[in-house]
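We emphasize that the prediction below concerns an isolated chain of 405 residues; any contacts that depend on oligomerization or on bound cofactors are therefore not represented. The input was used exactly as deposited, without trimming of termini.
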Amino acid sequence: MTVPVTPLLDPAVLADPHPALAALRESGPVHRVDMRMGLPAWMVTRYDDVLAALSDPRLSNDPHHAAALTEVMRGDFLSRSMIGADPPEHTRLRRLVSKAFTARRVEGLRPRVQEITDALLDRITPRGTADLVGEFGLPLPVTVIGELLGVPEADRDRFRSWTDEMLDRPFDPGSDMARMVAARERMHGYLAHLVAAKRAHPADDLLTDLVQATDEGERLDAQELLAMAFLLLIAGYVTTVSLIGNGMLALLRHPDQLDRLRADPSLVPEAIEELLRFDGPVNPGLARYALEDLEIGGVRIPRGDMVLLAIAAADRDPHRFPDPARLDVGTPDRGHLAFGHGIHYCLGAPLARLEGQVAFAALLARLPDLALAAREDELRWTGGGVLRGLRELPVTFTPTPARAG
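Result of the prediction step, given as a token string:
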């Protein structure tokens, strides 16, 4: 059965894709997907198949292995990053930045993440109303990754707007490809300028470290450096914005779980994992490219075809997660695939977890009587390719004074 991708991009389905994904998962493990771009593609929907495929060496991350893919989507700039590379290139690239994202190094950022969180909430708490995406969920990780990389504060709104244009509904046949390409080129030009600035005026930040490693011949060429900067910048905040927005909406829709978490903040780490499974940022999933003819779930996939690993469908597979449509913030099960699996497991997972833990604990502690301030049909979503998240999350709560000092 061939499934047109367009219904998955319909605003109503984008608002709640899980019924559509469940129907696909229940009707078969693998479906041919009409991408409307002349690109042969297959969607894998079941947990065991997605888990195995995430570490299958016959499936490549490199879009240059696609049998039919436009040059716009290949993106020579973006495909030079870790996310578009296979070993040994992937191993080499990841090694250069992995030390900055170890659990120990990330834990050292906790006081600063808490400080940023508190400052953002100090602006919100006296009012009694807020957009938890635009005023909290977005500026928190943007500030953290901006400081880590050394991006000037005045520039952060610009790269956010470019990112929105590049990532919003890339597989939609109605997408403005010229706008997406222009945003990519502006991002490329900005990063080239920023790299030059770091070379001329070194600072104590990760981007300076990467520039110096490149200048010392440590296996990063000029395009790889720009691609690495792009990936760290974008991946460093986009997914965390969706974790906070999607997660808070899930809790507001399940007040019993919201009350449970507020009553027992020690459950926050488990709650983060459950929210990632229940309605995580990666939706519908991740793209791979078949290096040879292969079979998944009894379906033959020809060499060069795209394989879309539907993380969102896998993480609600009832064969892996009993009663998967039920939110349980206290479950100890951490088997979700929201951060991927295998050698491409998300490098920034420790940072995303830390930001999520600090953010949710603070929101629950400082925003009493939290409630959604919009009808469900008024909520707007972005995504349709790899990621999915709320554009805004309007809420009300009982006002409280900002902290002293």
